[in-house]
Amino acid sequence: MTTTLTRPATTSAGSPAPDQPAPTHALSVRDLHVGDPSTGHDIVRGVSFDLPRGGVVGVVGESGSGKTLTCRAVLGILPEPFAVTGGSVEVVGRDTATLTPREWTGLRGSTIAAVFQDPASYLNPSIPVGRQVAEVLRVKLGLRRRAARERSLELLAAVQLRDPARVWAQYPFELSGGMLQRVLIAAAVAVEPQVLIADEATTALDVTVQAEILDLLAELRASTGLALVVVSHDLAVVAQLCTEVLVMRDGEVVEQGPVSRVLHDPQHDYTRLLVREHEQYGLERFLGTDGGELR
Ligand SMILES: Nc1ncnc2c1ncn2[C@@H]1O[C@H](COP(=O)(O)OP(=O)(O)O)[C@@H](O)[C@H]1O
Ligand SMILES: [Mg+2]
């Protein structure tokens, strides 16, 4: 087993002051609507969930069902012309509707972070990957050059990249997709966020590497208390990691509940279809033979 991360006792930016009672939820989404305010047309309609500290919630649904817009609303990075048109998002007890753009920037990458499908596009092709992680530490945590380098090496080890010193000095084109996603996860957890959103983070990877990355996320959760939102069009990904799942279709949540219940006893036709589609290739691994434990 390689190095793991532990959360230091300090409170990071965006956390409540030590004498305040800690909010119970890392993330709380209430009846979220996302749409184009100029037309009044909502694409995401009524998403609600609570993510406890250290919890894992999954969002599953076919392409175009509104998963990414939901994530981007939670991260405060909706593309034009979209905006939050209803409902609320609280990050560690903080209502994000009241945040200024500057406060949003502070919250992202300190309290809430994300990894997406295409890791290469988030890295500068002409800078060694380790230096890019170190840069995050310098900018976001104010670490000096040497400390940032040392910490970035620890982070590369923590995301289970073999030979971190060698990887540190490599350029993105020299690394595989799975390695690049590990680098991106290292950069995302560098600032010890409370919430990490993984939006199709393993979709572009082959099945073996996908499983390794999911294991890594589970380990980071266990060692740091990081809360995860795992988004995938693939029910098997969500089944592997999550305790609660939301099934989205056409901008709405059609079914929501504990993963074990949703997989064993789907109530909605669309969920039944998703479960049935996956039965051919591997979901029974998570369903178990006795209909009991998922993991
Ligand atoms: N930048 C954008 N401009 C215009 N329409 C968009 C944009 N992003 C998403 N949409 C539309 O919003 C809907 C939901 O998209 P998205 O949240 O990306 O779905 P998912 O992540 O579930 O595949 C889709 O119908 C898509 O066409
Ligand atoms: Mg998406």
Automatic annotation (TrEMBL):
GO molecular function terms attached to this record: ATP binding; ATP hydrolysis activity
Family, similarity comment: Belongs to the ABC transporter superfamily.
Record-linked Pfam families: ABC_tran (PF00005)
Low complexity bias: start-end ranges: 1-11
Species: Knoellia locipacati
Record's protein name: ABC transporter domain-containing protein
PANTHER family reported in the protein's UniProt record: DIPEPTIDE TRANSPORT ATP-BINDING PROTEIN DPPD, OLIGOPEPTIDE TRANSPORT ATP-BINDING PROTEIN APPD
Superkingdom, natural source: Bacteria
Transport is among the record's keywords: yes
Membrane topology term: Peripheral membrane protein
Chain residue ranges for the region called Disordered: 1-24
Predominant localisation class: membrane
Keyword ATP-binding attributed: yes
Subcellular location: Cell membrane
Keywords, ordered alphabetically: ATP-binding, Cell membrane, Membrane, Nucleotide-binding, Transport
Entry GO CC: plasma membrane
Occurrences of domain ABC transporter (ranges): 27-275
InterPro entries: AAA+_ATPase (IPR003593), ABC_Ni/Peptide_Import (IPR050388), ABC_transporter-like_ATP-bd (IPR003439), ABC_transporter-like_CS (IPR017871), P-loop_NTPase (IPR027417)
